[in-house]
Each structure stands twice: as structure tokens, then as C-alpha cells.
UniProtKB/TrEMBL annotation:
Protein name (Swiss-Prot/TrEMBL): 2-dehydropantoate 2-reductase
Domain Ketopantoate reductase N-terminal intervals: 5-156
Pathway: Cofactor biosynthesis; (R)-pantothenate biosynthesis; (R)-pantoate from 3-methyl-2-oxobutanoate: step 2/2
Sorted UniProt keywords: NADP, Oxidoreductase, Pantothenate biosynthesis
Species: Flavobacterium pygoscelis
């Protein structure tokens, strides 16, 4: 029996990593990669494939199938979810017929509450935890551009069998994905959340890219203030994060392409729906729950909520 893997969400994350999987397992006897897409994206990939552009290369891949019709998609062994956080419930319900009790779900969202939200919908399924570090985006339907060389995928679970986790890791490695199966996955996901939440909040609030924030003393101070507040929240929640996690986030930012910005900032600029509630509002809400003060996050959330 072939292992069937669905990629839900063909944006910067799902498109790029799904593209690597499709490239490796095109016409494979052991693995089928299914892109779950609709509209212009579905049409473009079906007709011309998915184009991946990097700093040094570009290539076109074809999945086994691209569709948004559960009848055509069929049952899935693994489902990798990479939509926007505001689409979690709607997107999963739309393909619920493809998800059996044996389907293993790997969320690769920007927020930290996805596994809980998915488990509410599918309480009988193994829901892993995961996160990625990558700068990639949609250029147009069916075309994904990745900037820079930094790309890492982390995943794990305290509940799933080691055989299931190793099987997925083997598939990732075969596709040339720099993936890491980690034991302390909750802390790893929160380390990513600290980085992306502060970055998304700062870039959107200041309307500046990474380089502009790093070069401006006032902007950098606001970014560091956000880091300090969200790190304090993580500590109060009992997460065992590295003592230098704030400095590590700053170093990650300095290593990122200075011309790049966050996906939330890009969505604000384009007038699109944003992940403000998941990336900024979540910190405000959790801080109130734990009775700690996060004035910078509150200030950012209040301004961006009124845009």
C-alpha cells in the first residue's frame, strides 16, 4: 500500500515543502503526494505544475493529484496543514471525509494553539506538533519563491508512536528536507512562536522590514520589548526555554534576509485578512489569563485591530 500524504495550504510553507515532496516522489511506487488546492492555484498546478524559485535555482513539480474534492482526494495517511491560522477549522472540515482515525495530522502554522484546535475537531487522531523556519511566499498562483538559504522543519509528539514519527522523518529526509524529530517539541514550537510573533507584531506595527527594524534604535527597542514580554509569558506558562532565548531570537533576525518582512505585514500591506489574533492577540489574551502585564503587545494589538 502506498503512503498517501496530503498538503493542505499551498502558500509559502505548504507550497515549498510540498513541492520538495512532490519532486522526490513523482511517480513513486511507495508515496503519493496530494496537493489540496482550489481556484486559480488548483487550475495553474494542474495545467503547468508548481514552480519553486530559490536564490540559485528554479524547478517545476507535479503532485500525484491536485484537487479540493474529497471524493477525488480519497483517504490520507498523513495530512500536513499549512493554511493561515484563521482557516484551520473551515479548511479541515471541508476535507473531513479524507481523514480517517488513522490519519496522522502535522500542523505547520505560525501560532501555537493549532494542535488543540485540531484535536477538538478530530479527537481520535494523532495530532503532531511542528514548526518551520523559512522565508517564502506566493508570487502568483502556482509559483512559490523562497528567499535565503535558511530552512528548517521541526516536528514531534509526546503521544504518537516512534514508528509513525520515524516513517515521516524518513520521507522528509528522502525529499531533501532539513527536518528534525525532537523530543521537546512544545518548547521548540514556542521558541518559533516567540520569534515569529514578535517579528510579525513589530513589522506590522512599524510598517518596516527586518533591515529597517535592525537599523533603527527605536524600532529595535520595540522589537526587544515584545520579545521580553512574550518570553515572560512562556516562563509563567511553565515552558522550559533556554535562558538566552531573547538573544537567540535577535540573532535569528540578524541572519534573516534584511529585505524580508513577516507574512502578516505583507497581508496588512495587501489589504488581506491577517493572522493578528493568532500572532498578537493570543499573547494579550494569555497574558490576561495569567495576570501578567504585556503593555507593548497590548499597544500593538490595539493599533493593528483598528487598521
Amino acid at each position: 500500500m502506498k503512503t498517501r500524504i496530503g498538503i493542505l495550504g499551498m502558500g509559502g510553507v505548504g507550497g515549498y515543502f510540498g513541492g520538495l515532496l512532490a519532486k522526490e516522489f513523482y511517480q513513486s511506487d511507495s508515496v503519493e503526494i496530494v496537493f489540496i488546492a482550489r481556484g486559480e492555484t488548483q487550475k495553474e498546478i494542474a495545467n503547468n505544475g508548481l514552480k519553486i524559485i530559490t536564490d540559485t535555482d528554479e524547478f517545476i513539480v507535479f503532485p500525484f493529484l491536485v484537487s479540493n474534492d474529497p471524493q477525488f482526494i480519497g483517504k490520507l495517511d498523513f495530512l500536513i496543514c499549512a493554511t493561515k491560522t484563521y482557516d484551520i477549522e473551515e479548511s479541515l472540515v471541508s476535507i473531513s471525509k479524507c481523514i480517517t482515525k488513522k490519519t496522522v495530522i502535522l500542523p505547520l502554522y505560525n501560532g501555537v494553539d493549532a494542535p488543540e484546535r485540531i484535536s477538538t475537531l478530530f479527537p481520535d487522531n494523532e495530532v503532531l506538533q511542528g514548526c518551520v523556519y523559512i522565508v517564502s511566499m506566493i508570487v502568483s498562483p502556482g509559483i512559490i519563491k523562497k528567499i535565503g538559504t535558511y530552512e528548517k522543519l521541526f516536528f514531534g509528539s509526546t503521544m504518537a508512536s516512534i514508528a509513525t514519527l520515524n516513517k515521516l522523518q524518513t520521507i522528509f529526509k528522502s525529499a531533501g528536507i532539513e527536518s528534525y524529530l525532537v523530543d521537546n517539541i512544545e518548547e521548540t514550537v514556542w521558541e518559533k512562536f516567540i520569534f515569529i510573533s514578535a517579528l510579525a507584531s513589530a513589522t506590522s506595527y512599524l510598517n518596516q522590514n527586518i533591515g529597517e527594524i535592525l537599523a533603527n534604535q527605536t524600532s529595535r527597542a520595540l522589537y526587544v520589548s515584545l520579545l521580553n514580554e512574550i518570553t515572560m509569558l512562556a516562563a509563567v506558562k511553565g515552558l522550559n526555554l533556554p535562558e538566552d532565548s531573547v538573544m537567540q531570537s535577535i540573532l535569528k533576525l540578524e541572519k534573516s534576509p534584511h529585505s524580508a518582512t513577516s507574512s502578516m505585514h505583507r497581508d496588512f500591506l495587501a489589504g488581506n485578512k491577517t493572522e493578528l489574533d493568532s500572532l498578537t492577540g493570543f499573547v494579550v489574551t494569555e497574558s490576561l489569563k495569567y495576570e501578567i502585564e504585556t503593555p507593548t503587545y497590548q499597544m500593538v494589538f490595539d493599533k493593528l485591530s483598528n487598521l
